[in-house]
Design a protein that fits this description.
CATH class of chain B: Alpha Beta
Largest sheet of chain A: 5 strands, mixed
Strand content of chain A: 5-15%
Strand order of the largest sheet of chain B: 5-4-3-8-9
CATH architecture of chain A: 3-Layer(aba) Sandwich
Mean pLDDT of chain A: 96
Low-confidence stretches of chain B: none
Strand order of the largest sheet of chain A: 1-3-2-4-5
Largest interface: A-B, 15 and 19 residues
Radius of gyration of chain A: 15 Å
Order of helices and strands of chain A: EEHEHHHHHEEH
Structural class of chain A: alpha+beta
CATH topology of chain A: Glutaredoxin
Largest sheet of chain B: 5 strands, mixed
Order of helices and strands of chain B: EEEHEHEHEEEEH
Helix content of chain B: 25-40%
Shape of chain A: globular
Helix content of chain A: 40-55%
Number of helices of chain A: 7
CATH superfamily of chain A: Glutaredoxin
Radius of gyration of chain B: 14 Å
Oligomer: heterodimer
Low-confidence stretches of chain A: none
Strand content of chain B: 25-35%
Shape of chain B: globular
CATH class of chain A: Alpha Beta
Chain lengths: 173, 153
């Protein structure tokens, strides 16, 4: 069983109760159709489990097969610098079919980000590095495709369709 | 599988329609041999797509990646182009599976390579091996750990 090699820290993007009994980490790619399919499922899981769930998203862009994946990931991090990571995250998954650079800037505008700042941050090597670090930590942890999930530090290889996934998580409570 | 500590058998296989790669020419570099059943099948494609993204991390560790299956050089050519793969796919095509058999990872029933990994050091000695269940993408954590452990020696 593969384990999460890099523990969740303040550097991560976290939603929900920080002290929840269940910590769910997703490694995902904004341009990956399976991640797009998982997106509403995860929203429902978060609703259902409420305070019992801490959800973490780490970027795992497969940039050769998904040409917009890396820039999308970087734009989520750039939005994060303006405290709107999750808003961008949601926006990207809701607009998966349009993730080219001009669209990314348009989304920044729609989210009322400081667009000049956003475009500046977008060019910062630190942000690409952060995405690459997420990627490497994923590979280290045995991520072999997206989405990959870790529940309380253990890789979850089971079914992640809504019903079986919720059932699995609720059984852990 | 061939045991760790064994000398990796030398071979020469087509990497492109007009180019061959010989293992012994890569002496001085670490080599990752990724045997896989077939171009185009879903799991292999994911595995190769993942490795494609990993090349930077492999190169940082002075390692070259070679994919090997029994598909022909033309099939590899089309597959590599379609998936934008930036590493060689070797055609173990004629005589079929000869190199795969040398490395003891041939699936006689399917007539394909099993899903297997070897990491070979700069001197051509096998330092790590892994046989994966056929339907499972083995990921790359094992390869990276093996490469890093070799660097520590």
């Amino acid at each position: 069983m593969s384990k999460l090699k890099k523990a969740v820290t303040d550097m991560d993007h976290i939603q929900g109760n920080a002290d929840a009994p269940i910590e769910l980490v997703e490694y995902g790619d904004y341009q990956c159709p399976y991640c797009g399919h998982a997106y509403p499922i995860l929203k429902n899981i978060q609703k259902k489990l409420g305070n019992n769930l801490k959800f973490v998203f780490r970027n795992f862009p497969l940039s050769e097969i998904h040409p917009n994946a890396l820039n999308s990931a970087v734009s989520s991090e750039a939005a994060g610098l303006q405290h709107k990571f999750w808003q961008m995250h949601d926006h990207l998954f809701k607009h998966q079919n349009r993730l080219d650079d001009p669209s990314l800037v348009k989304y920044a505008t729609q989210l009322h980000l400081n667009v000049e700042q956003f475009e500046n941050d977008f060019e910062k090597p630190e942000l690409v590095e952060k995405v690459n670090d997420d990627f490497e930590s994923g590979v280290r942890s045995g991520v072999n495709g997206t989405p990959s999930f870790f529940i309380n530090g253990e890789k979850y290889n089971g079914d992640w369709e809504e019903e079986p996934f919720i059932e699995h998580l609720e059984n852990l409570l | 599988m061939l045991a760790v500590g064994t000398k990796a058998p030398d071979f020469s296989l087509s990497a492109t329609p007009d180019q061959k790669i010989q293992l012994s020419q890569l002496k001085g570099k670490k080599v990752i041999l990724a045997f896989y059943p077939a171009d185009w099948s879903p799991v292999c494609s994911d595995e190769m797509a993942l490795y494609n993204e990993m090349l930077k991390l492999f190169h940082k560790r002075n390692a070259e990646l070679l994919g090997i299956s029994v598909d022909s050089k033309w099939c590899h050519f089309a597959f590599g182009q379609d998936r934008k793969l930036h590493f060689p796919l070797l055609a173990d095509f004629e005589p079929k599976g000869a190199v795969t058999k040398l490395y003891d990872v041939y699936d006689e029933v399917e007539g394909e390579s099993k899903r297997a990994l070897y990491v070979i050091d700069e001197e051509g000695i096998i330092q790590w091996n892994y046989l994966s269940p056929v339907g499972m993408n083995p990921g790359a954590d094992g390869i990276l750990d093996a490469l890093d452990n070799m660097n520590k020696k």
